[in-house]
């Protein structure tokens, strides 16, 4: 696939990026280089390769999935401009 200057102009417009007219050929060249790299990556055989979480083998830390209230109600409400009965108090917005 090849990107021409018209396609580069359209992509810049869709991305809401102001690209001067004289820079469009260079932008099209960069898009073509990116697409070439993606095509090169698609040629790699990844059959049987496990997905990685990190470059070093490790297990993710696990914890029990237990529902709690967090135990920090007072600490959270300490920064509230107005708190009543253990909740944030906000101005009425619907009449």
Automatic annotation (TrEMBL):
<dbReference type="Pfam" id="PF02686">
    <property type="entry name" value="GatC"/>
</dbReference>
<dbReference type="GO" id="GO:0070681">
    <property type="term" value="P:glutaminyl-tRNAGln biosynthesis via transamidation"/>
</dbReference>
<dbReference type="GO" id="GO:0016740">
    <property type="term" value="F:transferase activity"/>
</dbReference>
<dbReference type="GO" id="GO:0050566">
    <property type="term" value="F:asparaginyl-tRNA synthase (glutamine-hydrolyzing) activity"/>
</dbReference>
<dbReference type="InterPro" id="IPR036113">
    <property type="entry name" value="Asp/Glu-ADT_sf_sub_c"/>
</dbReference>
<protein>
    <recommendedName>
        <fullName>Aspartyl/glutamyl-tRNA(Asn/Gln) amidotransferase subunit C</fullName>
        <ecNumber>6.3.5.-</ecNumber>
    </recommendedName>
</protein>
<keyword id="KW-0808">Transferase</keyword>
<keyword id="KW-0648">Protein biosynthesis</keyword>
<dbReference type="GO" id="GO:0006412">
    <property type="term" value="P:translation"/>
</dbReference>
<comment type="subunit">
    <text>Heterotrimer of A, B and C subunits.</text>
</comment>
<dbReference type="GO" id="GO:0005524">
    <property type="term" value="F:ATP binding"/>
</dbReference>
<comment type="similarity">
    <text>Belongs to the GatC family.</text>
</comment>
<keyword id="KW-0547">Nucleotide-binding</keyword>
<dbReference type="GO" id="GO:0006450">
    <property type="term" value="P:regulation of translational fidelity"/>
</dbReference>
<dbReference type="GO" id="GO:0050567">
    <property type="term" value="F:glutaminyl-tRNA synthase (glutamine-hydrolyzing) activity"/>
</dbReference>
<dbReference type="InterPro" id="IPR003837">
    <property type="entry name" value="GatC"/>
</dbReference>
<keyword id="KW-0436">Ligase</keyword>
<keyword id="KW-0067">ATP-binding</keyword>
<comment type="function">
    <text>Allows the formation of correctly charged Asn-tRNA(Asn) or Gln-tRNA(Gln) through the transamidation of misacylated Asp-tRNA(Asn) or Glu-tRNA(Gln) in organisms which lack either or both of asparaginyl-tRNA or glutaminyl-tRNA synthetases. The reaction takes place in the presence of glutamine and ATP through an activated phospho-Asp-tRNA(Asn) or phospho-Glu-tRNA(Gln).</text>
</comment>
